[in-house]
Write a structure and sequence with these properties.
Length: 431
């Protein structure tokens, strides 16, 4: 019975080479549409940033907002691709903060900045790079209107408003007069910029954490929707690929989407990123219980309540750690844990394969015949910590490019979402 059920799930979640090739084609069409300003599930947002030269220097403050934690960093750029972190602190963004009103939310950020500056005795004038990893329409490097919240954020009064202005006002309210906001960026752009500062072969930044997204440098002449002024021949595009919606979904994906706070939105993100993989697995476990396939007598809360099973827990199970004992949940049989482990494998494997297909689509958009070497900067706990995730991505890459996969290097890049904002700020003063 269980074997039959698992086989059925595995079939449903199978993402074959053929699926990947089809996805790559429609992904590239959506990229083109997005660049031309036509209707597309890929927003293809101009970032007003180009790749750095590696010689940018100076001290900067960076605020990295966009996931489970906010981070504040003081960064020293030494040139020649060298970076020093002077200080870094994480502030957790609890549910109560991410569902408040605009003023409370930005005051909270300003208070955190203030605490950080005090702690590190930083009372000098500092330029600030702000990484805000949500879909934002930018009209310059220092202005950006939030299109819509993603990843469970729901602060009122921010959608449709310029987040730089909102943060700047909070700085003023809190008397942070020696700070000057100079750049607004996205974590994907920051990750790309950070790895490029170190390695000029890098031409993609990818996030695989709470959410998923990517950025790459585009030739200015191909961004036909862009009518503004820009000083370089390239501009980095924030794809917002979490929104891609031309992938076949299972009934679990459809239900998860319907029950989510943004139905119809972030379809690919809901199949790939850390915020959702645990929830997909939970839904499958719940069905297994309803079919009478679980050894446990009653359905535990962790499988009953939406979002109770996290991707982190799924990842620990994949590494054979017993999360249930540690969190005091008793009465889940070994057989059920084995089932959950298999389901986790199926769900995470599909996520990794979709991520690789999306990368492959962007690479062949930039370099049709894959003649060059490409370093892909990847940040995020899902990529870094989920057992087998990178291997599953590499395998998919080899299936897509049997003879050229060795030209593609998936390179873990830490802290790009923080450091990148500092590098962008520095490159503004140097051009
Ligand atoms: P963020 O995306 O919030 O900036 P991370 O890159 O650290 O930060 O990603 C956090 C997400 O990664 C969590 O929401 C969770 O889904 C997932 N995650 C956390 N720990 C692990 C882990 N050990 N293995 C796999 N995924 C994890
Ligand atoms: Mg992050």
């Amino acid at each position: 019975m269980i074997d039959g059920f698992l086989k059925e799930i595995a079939n449903m979640f199978d993402f074959t080479r053929k699926d990947a090739c089809e996805m790559m084609r429609s992904f590239q069409i959506e990229m083109e549409n997005g660049l031309k300003g036509r209707k597309s599930s890929l927003k293809m947002l101009p970032s007003f940033v180009r790749r750095p030269k590696g010689n940018e220097k100076g001290d900067f403050l960076a605020i990295d907002l966009g996931g489970t934690n906010m981070r504040i960093l003081a960064i020293r750029l030494l040139g020649q691709g060298k970076i020093e972190t002077i200080g870094m602190r994480r502030f957790s963004l609890g549910k109560e903060i991410i569902s408040k009103t605009e003023d409370v939310f930005f005051d909270f950020i300003a208070d955190c900045v203030s605490a950080f500056l005090n702690e590190h005795k930083l009372d000098v004038f500092l330029e600030v790079g702000f990484t805000f990893s949500f879909p934002v329409i930018q009209t310059s490097i220092l202005s950006g209107v939030l299109v819509s919240w993603t990843k469970g954020f729901a602060v009122k009064g921010v959608e449709g408003h310029d987040v730089v202005t909102l943060l700047d006002k909070a700085f003023k309210r809190k008397g942070l007069e020696n700070l000057k906001l100079v750049a607004l960026a996205n974590d994907t752009v920051g990750t790309l910029v950070t790895q490029s500062y170190i390695n000029p072969l890098c031409d993609m930044g990818v996030i695989l954490g709470t959410g998923t997204n990517a950025a790459y440098p585009e030739r200015l002449e191909s961004i036909t929707k862009f009518k503004g002024m820009w000083y370089s021949e390239e501009m980095i595009i924030n794809i917002e690929w979490g929104g891609f919606d031309k992938i076949k979904m299972t009934k679990y994906d459809e239900q998860l989407d319907k029950d989510s706070e943004n139905p119809g939105g972030q379809r690919m993100e809901k199949m790939v990123s850390g915020r959702y993989l645990g929830e997909i697995a939970r839904r499958i476990m719940k069905e297994a219980f309803e079919k009478g396939l679980l050894g446990s007598k009653e359905l535990k809360d962790i499988f009953l309540k939406p979002y109770s099973l996290t991707t982190e827990q799924l990842s620990l199970i994949a590494s054979d750690k017993n999360i249930f004992n540690d969190s005091g949940i008793e009465g889940i049989s070994d057989k059920d844990i084995r089932l959950l482990k298999e389901i986790g494998q199926i769900v995470s494997k599909r996520a990794a394969r979709i991520a690789s297909a999306a990368i492959a689509a962007v690479l062949t958009h930039m370099d049709k015949e894959l003649k060059l070497e490409h370093v892909i900067a990847i940040d995020g706990s899902l990529f870094e910590k989920y057992k087998g995730f990178k291997e599953n991505m590499d395998t998919m890459m080899k299936e897509i490019f049997p003879n050229q996969a060795d030209k593609i290097h998936l390179s873990l890049t830490h802290d790009g979402s923080g450091i990148g904002a500092a590098i962008i700020a520095a490159s503004l003063s140097s051009h």
